[in-house]
Design a protein that fits this description.
- By secondary structure, the chain is mainly α.
- It contains 10 helices and no strands.
- The longest helix has 17 residues.
- The radius of gyration is 17 Å and the shape is globular.
Length: 183
């Protein structure tokens, strides 16, 4: 059974009539619900990914809970599988957030998927938002899996975006990411 407090907390996070800083504070404290919060988020993403309960936000919150650099809680593989499913389905809702989540909970095999997102031109299922999210996710994933071949894959994808992408937002994100990984 869903806890009414968890559901209330989640609904307040997404209440746009509330102050942005207050909502950010609520978002950062959601993990304090522990297992009840995790179960709630899993139900949003796995049961009905097209629900009005913000599946993209749910996968991001789950990824934060299971990020090995932040918490290292067991269960990362399940969250990664859900993020992969949302990131590769042909739907708009929650795709960019799932891509970002892969940067937190993904493994070294996800570099190719994210690089492909960066290298692919804009389309209905690969919007500017998704390509920018993939740029950020590549940097996050590189931080968690810093092997030299991974670094090469990331740099090649970012340089491709910088040179070839027609969207200035993607080019700017790629330039910033390259600068960040060379610091």
């Amino acid at each position: 059974m869903r806890s009414p407090w968890v559901k209330l907390h989640w609904s307040l996070i997404h209440d746009e009539t509330l102050d942005v800083d207050f909502r950010r504070s609520l978002r950062s404290r959601f993990s304090e619900h522990g297992e009840a919060g995790r179960d709630f988020l899993l139900s949003i993403v796995s049961v009905d990914p097209d629900s009005a309960e913000h599946p993209g936000g749910a996968i991001l919150a789950l990824a934060k809970m299971y990020d090995p650099l932040l918490n290292g809680i067991a269960g990362r593989a399940e969250v990664r599988a859900l993020a992969l499913r949302l990131a590769t389905e042909e739907r708009a809702m929650g795709t960019a957030e799932a891509i970002i989540a892969l940067g937190w909970v993904g493994d070294a095999t996800d570099f190719d998927l994210l690089s492909g997102r960066v290298r692919t031109d804009a389309s209905a299922d690969n919007s500017t938002e998704c390509r920018v999210a993939a740029v950020g996710a590549l940097v996050q994933l590189l931080e968690r899996h810093p092997a030299e071949d991974s670094r090469t894959t990331v740099e090649n994808a970012l340089r491709f975006a910088l040179d070839q992408d027609r969207d200035p937002l993607v080019r700017d994100a790629a330039a910033e990411a390259l600068q960040q990984i060379h610091e």
